[in-house]
Amino acid sequence: MLERNRCNWPGTNDLMIQYHDLEWGVPVYDDSKLFEFIVLDSFQAGLSWSCILNKRENFRSAFDSFDAQKIAAYDEHKVAELMADSGIIRNRLKILATVNNARRFLEVQSEFGSFAQYIWQFVDGKMILNQWEDTAHIPASSPESDAMSKDLKKRGFKFVGTTICYAFMQAAGMINDHLITCYRHSEVTN
Length: 190
Fold this sequence. Notes:
The protein is mostly helical and 190 residues long.
């Protein structure tokens, strides 16, 4: 197998490498995929991404394939069911935030025509192309993630602090934070 020079954060974890090589930093305009990233990034708060990635399929199953319409209709019975599901992160506040965020997500879709139309405005519709040489230089937030966080909170979203928003922007390809030495840096640039 061809050894490639990539960012160092995936380490030797096959799932993390696959995520890095195929998804991270690729521009996403599909609303259902954007909602999935919102859910996963909000559950990541205080945890490692590998923890979330290892449970991703369990999350997909537990949360109806990240269908915002279905999640917006969850009731207390469904929340209790999720709290009993050992395959996901059983944090009541994060589960309730996911239900709330699904409702807010649908409101944004209704207002803007799509969530993508809304969310990409924070980077003027195009990827921010960074030129990092070292992972230590990558910030945890930016003026764009600050603005996104502030607006999402104003719209009633939960677990959308600036650090979570920055991670979301990286995942959704709104920011290219692949190191310049990583083979994916030039591949994901739009």
